[in-house]
Amino acid sequence: MAVQIAEVAECLLLIEREMRVQQLWSVEPPSAEAMASVTPFCVDSMPFEQWLQWIFVPRMKMIIEAGAALPSASGIQPMAEQVYGESNPQTRGLLKLLGEFDQLISDAN
Question: Is residue 37 part of a domain?
Fold first, then answer.
């Protein structure tokens, strides 16, 4: 399990790096109202990349740092494909990394 945690942590760092390279990483956080959304992926209140940056990555880092159990499933790549399109050359690297994340979570369970 420790190897899987390290792989998930590494994948999160790569996702963050790819988002920065593709200029999908923002300096300003979403509003408190946007962050309070209960809709999956906060689609009603923020762009997907903001959800990745401000909700997904921090929550996963908290899980890892706390030594808590990883999620039992992940389906982030299909959502990203829906948002960005499967053949968008700009986001191809991000889609690949999100798929790797999904696979790591699947393999951990």
Answer: no
CB 70 within 8 A of CB 8: yes
pLDDT, one tens digit per residue, over 15-69 is 999 999 999 999 999 999 999 999 999 999 999 999 999 999 999 999 999 999 9
In a domain, 76, yes or no: yes
User: Is residue 22 a contact partner of residue 90, using CB atoms and an 8 Å limit?
Assistant: yes
The residues near 31 (Cβ < 8 Å, ≥ 6 apart) are none
Q: Quick check: is 20 in a domain?
A: yes
Cα end-to-end distance, the chain, whole Å = 10
Residue 70 lies in a domain: yes
CA–CA dist 39, 48 (Å, integer): 12
Count: domains in the chain: 1
